[in-house]
Design a protein that fits this description.
This protein is an alpha+beta fold. The chain is 46% helix and 12% strand.
């Protein structure tokens, strides 16, 4: 099973003026597409690994042969990260959370403003390229974290809920 580039769930210009159409086209059709192509190529001779959902693949990188592990980490991570990223963006999305998530944010961070401060600090503090995340740890507690390059919280046993790409091309 080859991984596929998911369609963008909105028009390329839907996020203007915040993210322009050309940036979205390049980011989705070139960068994300390259991650998909590269992870598929790396797994061509590893059918059992290629059959896994990308999240399961990157959750247990020790099972990936060392000769292709870095390529799978970078490109499988890039594919997983961007697939979530596109789903969290869109017209009418954003703002303060509601329901159980709002309660969890208040409980863990003391409020939405404090969460935003910590999340912004994680994003701005990432030296070089990477991501800032709101994740769930294995005990189900929210945390703000930052990962380098295309690493994903999944690689550390966490579940990403929201990610912000802080690569220079983003």
């Amino acid at each position: 099973m080859a991984y596929t580039l998911p369609p963008l769930p909105y028009a390329f210009d839907a996020l203007e003026p915040h993210i322009d159409k050309l940036t979205m086209e390049i980011h989705h059709d070139r960068h994300h597409a390259a991650y998909v192509t590269n992870v598929n190529k790396a797994l061509e001779e590893h059918a059992a690994l290629a059959a896994l959902p990308v999240e399961k693949l990157i959750a247990d990188l020790e099972k990936v042969p060392e000769a292709i592990r870095t390529v799978v980490r970078n490109n499988g991570g890039g594919h997983a990260n961007h697939s979530l990223f596109w789903e969290t963006l869109g017209k009418g999305k954003g703002g303060e959370p509601a329901g159980h998530l709002a309660e969890a944010v208040r409980s863990v961070f003391g409020g939405f403003d404090t969460f935003k401060e910590q999340f912004t600090k994680a994003a701005m503090g990432r030296f070089g390229s990477g991501w800032a995340w709101l994740s769930l740890d294995p005990q189900g507690k929210l945390l703000v974290e930052s990962t380098a390059n295309q690493d994903s919280p999944i690689m550390h046993g966490n579940v990403p809920l929201l990610g912000v790409d802080v690569w220079e091309h983003a």
